[in-house]
Amino acid sequence: MSKAAPTETERCIESLLAVFQRYAGREGDSCTLSKREFLAFMNTELASFTKNQKDPAVLDRMMKKLDLNSDGKLDFPEFLNLIGGIAVACHEALVVQAPPR
Ligand SMILES: [Ca+2]
């Protein structure tokens, strides 16, 4: 079977999986982000967001909100809600910035 070059969308999905696995694999269960892994992810991958947060409890609250089954860890679907939420916020910001027609 010939392997076509991945599309932009496929590469985005692969990147999300790879990033999740890289951080989730640091300690404990390699299929979930612990609180420490979540903080490492946020402070490295989304540093532009976290460096503007004066209140350290913001990340605590984010983790609690994202942890839908309240097991203290983020699985991949829970992680995707974070990415999806940020993507929606970026999209809304773009729409707001767009000049009126
Ligand atoms: Ca969870």
TrEMBL record:
<dbReference type="GO" id="GO:0005737">
    <property type="term" value="C:cytoplasm"/>
</dbReference>
<dbReference type="InterPro" id="IPR001751">
    <property type="entry name" value="S100/CaBP7/8-like_CS"/>
</dbReference>
<dbReference type="GO" id="GO:0042127">
    <property type="term" value="P:regulation of cell population proliferation"/>
</dbReference>
<dbReference type="InterPro" id="IPR028482">
    <property type="entry name" value="S100A11"/>
</dbReference>
<dbReference type="InterPro" id="IPR018247">
    <property type="entry name" value="EF_Hand_1_Ca_BS"/>
</dbReference>
<dbReference type="Pfam" id="PF01023">
    <property type="entry name" value="S_100"/>
</dbReference>
<dbReference type="GO" id="GO:0044548">
    <property type="term" value="F:S100 protein binding"/>
</dbReference>
<dbReference type="InterPro" id="IPR011992">
    <property type="entry name" value="EF-hand-dom_pair"/>
</dbReference>
<dbReference type="InterPro" id="IPR002048">
    <property type="entry name" value="EF_hand_dom"/>
</dbReference>
<dbReference type="Pfam" id="PF00036">
    <property type="entry name" value="EF-hand_1"/>
</dbReference>
<keyword id="KW-0677">Repeat</keyword>
<dbReference type="InterPro" id="IPR013787">
    <property type="entry name" value="S100_Ca-bd_sub"/>
</dbReference>
<comment type="subunit">
    <text>Homodimer; disulfide-linked.</text>
</comment>
<protein>
    <recommendedName>
        <fullName>Protein S100</fullName>
    </recommendedName>
</protein>
<dbReference type="GO" id="GO:0005509">
    <property type="term" value="F:calcium ion binding"/>
</dbReference>
<dbReference type="GO" id="GO:0048306">
    <property type="term" value="F:calcium-dependent protein binding"/>
</dbReference>
<keyword id="KW-0106">Calcium</keyword>
<keyword id="KW-0479">Metal-binding</keyword>
<feature type="domain" description="EF-hand">
    <location>
        <begin position="54"/>
        <end position="89"/>
    </location>
</feature>
<dbReference type="GO" id="GO:0005615">
    <property type="term" value="C:extracellular space"/>
</dbReference>
<keyword id="KW-1015">Disulfide bond</keyword>
